[in-house]
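agent> fetching stored inputs for the cobalamin docking request
agent> found them:
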Amino acid sequence: MTDARTGTRRTVVVTSMASDSHTWNLVFLQLLLEELGHDVVNLGPCVPDDLLVTRCAAIRPAFVVISSVNGHGCQDGLRVIRRLRSHPGLFAMPVVIGGKLVSAVRAAAARTAGTITVDAHTRVGHLAAVESALRDGVALNGYLVVSHPAATTAQVLDGIHGPEFPVQVRHGSADPVDIFRALCAVRLGATEGGPVSYCLPYGRTPLSESVHNWAVGCELLAQLRDTGVEPHLETFGGCMLGQLCPPSQLVAISVLEALFFAQHGIRSVSVSYAQQTHPVQDREAVGALRRLCGELLPTADWHVVVYAYMGLYPQTRDGAYRLLGQAVELAVTGGAQRMIVKTAAESRRIPSIEENVRALEYAARAARRVPRTPVDAGTDSATYEEAAALVDAVLNLDPDVGRALLQAFRKGYLDIPYCLHPDNRGQTRSFIDPDGRLRWEATGALPFDVPQRSRSRWFTSADLLRDLSYVRRKFDEPGSEAGVAATR
Ligand code: B12
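agent> prediction call returned; pasting tokens
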């Protein structure tokens, strides 16, 4: 679109703010603004205030679109707008902000483990923002595990954490060392993540730094063993951006991260896989994950964790529960020992304690109804073949798994569709086929070939939204589970 006064195309800056790592919103807004004729500079996730000001001062955009969905938008937005307005060249620049701007489980009638989810400022190491939120009484979206004294955390865990009720800390940090130190101080040994899965989808930390930080973090956590606590790490590699990453790559990253943990002293691991778009394909993926772990992990202490769908969630109560029911079936038939549930509130906001309890109890009841059949982990599915090819190609790059992962992303042997992180090549694309299976559309430099598929037309923001909301549509429209038209 050209500026009527100058006759030039108008540049728009799309950005998130310092604490927010979500990117599907940014990919969507970029496509939409380009369709409207703008040139877009997309600054990506977790943009520090200084970077936003410097880039806007240099670009002098026609306007700035700020997107925030992690629940810290109110707090972050006020701070950022003050920073922009205090710059002499930017005080009149038009800025719009949108997205989702506006955060106890032990007694549930189900076998549960507890979770402490860390807030989004701590995840990115912005402890000053935590302090200012505490001062101003602003609600944050998680527990301040680093900022609260160890005695406070010990009090929170008192009478809750124990062999009968393990508590796991979920954080999303590419630099987990301070968080792990805080866990060690209260002898809490169960947490999750990984050098790739807590880096590429979660911000802008260079992958090389994340690999280093995670190596140090694992070795720190491993020292808990000396105090009689066996540390346990769960990979987040089976989730990545939550949606639209074909299952074989999720399986491969989960296995590679478990190998990385083992190389840095962790002997008890779990490997994750997040439900995707097709139940049979998901079963193949869990089978592939089990088989590869059996073949490659140097420890017998491992198990599979299934996550209920981690992408755009159904908005109806019924749809949300039916999707959760299908995840339960996957977990039971796939031989998973544990699962992470989602609630009916997922599409809107952070759930209440009651909503979490209801989802856990629903999952436990649904699990009791699924017939226990012997788990077949030996299938030679296409998912297994692709995942094995990815793992093999990466491990052949270097005996050190961390260095191998870095090279793999550099060479494009691993490449996540739609991921904005600068260390991701961005040459792969996925699509949902008419049966609902998530497949490769472009494999870039991945170490296997699939029939290439050429699009008959330009990929638009509406196409992206249709792919992102495939599962939501399928489960929200009553009786439509089999018949939702897939993409393009
Ligand atoms: C995928 C996902 C993730 C992925 C993100 C991967 C990535 N790099 O993007 C992962 C798993 C890593 C993740 C992590 C987290 N997530 Co999350 N995530 C989601 C999920 C399931 C889907 C988001 C999505 O794909 N959206 C698709 C895009 C296209 O839609 P959208 O973002 O809403 O944007 C639309 C509109 O909002 C609007 N819009 C957006 N920006 C703007 C700007 C303007 C100006 C305008 C006009 C419009 C506009 O346009 C878009 C198209 O309609 C949602 C729940 C859901 N919706 O089902 C939770 C959700 C957004 N996450 C949430 C949270 C809290 C987190 C975490 C903090 C921890 C956690 N509990 O999981 C961390 C983030 C850590 C951090 N540092 O920020 C919360 C936010 C709660 C709130 N706002 O009250 C949600 C709602 C889940 C929940 N119920 O708790 N998440």
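agent> quick read of the result: The longest helix spans residues 279-296.
agent> awaiting further instructions
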